[in-house]
Amino acid sequence: MDIKQLEAFVILSECLSVTRAAEQLYCTQPAVSIKIRKLEETLNTALFERLNNRLHLTPQGVVYREYALQILNLLKQSQEHMRQFDDPASGTVCVGASHFCGAWLLPRLMADFKKTFPCVNTRLSIATTEKLTTRLAAHEDDFIIVSDYIGIDTNKYTVVNFLSDPFVLICPPDHWLADKQECSIIDILEETFLFKPARSATRSFLLDNFRKAGVESECLRLLEIGSLEGIKQGVVYGLGISVVSRFSVEQEILNGQVREVKLKEPLFLRRISYAHYRDKLLSPAAQNFLARLPALDRYPVPE
């Protein structure tokens, strides 16, 4: 087994065409077939099968692909890590983030980081939590940034909470709540709440907090909108009210597009965390990036 065989296997597993794999590897089709055959002989198992004249991964191939990706990504990271020891102010940092963290928290930090370390490339992948944990397991990202409401195996990963993320009630400027400094959840049960659809981690977080306040989800009048940006615009145009992360709505509050109302219930506070493999050797560039995360709550809001 060698790296070239693993590279051929991963590429072929993605395109499922020997012709296209040969084109991507800049070699002949027989060369691809030989690499795959030798790999299968080493593993003593079939990684591909041909059904109805089409190539498919076998169940063993599906499992082995995850290992092959981890090996190749670790090799790439190790080479990058060694280069960065010669120049800690260069290299690449691969960050995975949830939609909220990637869209509203990290851009400001990344811009500041780029000013200090202009020769470091920062790659940000925004994805669902399920996809992020898959990428982390495959060593595609150096670390991921998510809310602590997401369950991560702390036996396998180091998880560090670095930021408090308060949620606030927002309403249109002409809403009857707009002139109030604070209110109770019980006061607003007749209102329409704009929420993300089912299977959203943020939705689960909010409904759990309502439940702790003594309000079951069946008592709420919900209007589902599939994105946080859509929810904010829905509030701006009077579709309803919502409870959102204050970080995500700072600009709209500053511009007067929505009003913030404090909730009397001491709930709706989550923490933001980063996670990486427990035994992972972080590159100098990655360490420099992580060191800046706690300062996120002090970054100014652009006017």
In short:
By secondary structure, the protein is of the alpha/beta class. It is built from 10 helices and 12 strands.
Q: Secondary-structure blueprint of this entry?
A:
Elements: H1 3-15, H2 18-25, H3 29-43, E1 48-51, E2 54-57, H4 59-86, E3 90-97, H5 99-116, E4 119-126, H6 129-137, E5 143-147, E6 157-171, E7 182-183, E8 192-195, H7 201-212, E9 221-224, H8 228-236, E10 242-245, H9 246-254, E11 259-263, E12 269-277, H10 284-292
Parallel strand pairs: 3-4, 3-5, 7-11, 8-9
Antiparallel strand pairs: 1-2, 5-12, 6-10, 6-11, 6-12
Helix pairs in contact: 1-2, 1-3, 1-4, 2-3
What does this structure look like?
The structure is a single chain. With 303 residues, the protein is α/β, with parallel strands linked by helices. It contains ten helices and twelve strands. The chain has helices at residues 3-15, 18-25, 29-43, 59-86, 99-116, 129-137, 201-212, 228-236, 246-254, 284-292, and strands at 48-51, 54-57, 90-97, 119-126, 143-147, 157-171, 182-183, 192-195, 221-224, 242-245, 259-263, 269-277. The strands form three sheets. Strands 3, 4, 5, 6, 7, 10, 11 and 12 form an eight-stranded mixed sheet that branches. Strands 1-2 form a two-stranded antiparallel sheet. A two-stranded parallel ribbon has the order 8-9. Helix 7 (201-212) links the parallel strand 8 and strand 9. Helix 1 crosses helix 3 (29-43), helix 1 (3-15) crosses helix 4 and helix 2 (18-25) packs across helix 3. The longest helix is centred in the N-terminal third of the chain and has 28 residues, at 59-86. The chain is elongated and about 75 Å long. It starts with a helix and ends in an 11-residue tail after the last helix.
